[in-house]
Write a structure and sequence with these properties.
Layout lengths: L1 H18 L12 H4 L3 E7 L3 E9 L4 E10 L6 E14 L2 E8 L2 E6 H5 L8 H16 L1
Antiparallel strand pairs: 1-2, 2-3, 3-4, 4-5, 5-6
Amino acid sequence: MKTLIKAATIAILAFFSTSCDYDPDREDRDAYYIFNGKTWSRIEESTYYSYFVCYEFHNDGSYTYWFYEDDSRSPAAKYSIESGVWEIISRGHKDDIKLYCRGREDVYDVDDFLEGLSDHNSYSAIESYKRVIDDLYYY
């Protein structure tokens, strides 16, 4: 009897632990939580080229965007900082993210938008790029 109870308990725990895993390919995921309060970024660095893009999505529905591109063969680095509002639009089994900024709105398929972006980049590397962009943008 103890063996049966242990087996049933393990089976129930296994069921609950697998149902809590995040799977980005599941069609029933809620894309809102992919963005709400999260930072998505892309960092490319090589000897002659640096590229950084970062979206910080805030819980209040706003976002901040940083961009930096420095190709040593070009005359000057390109950079910008923008702020706007974001929302998720569900359309059947797919979701879109809509970004509003400076009277402009851009709509992207969530999967296409996240292509090349990561939520696992180093916090210190992200903050370092943000400081560089802030210095260029505000001074």
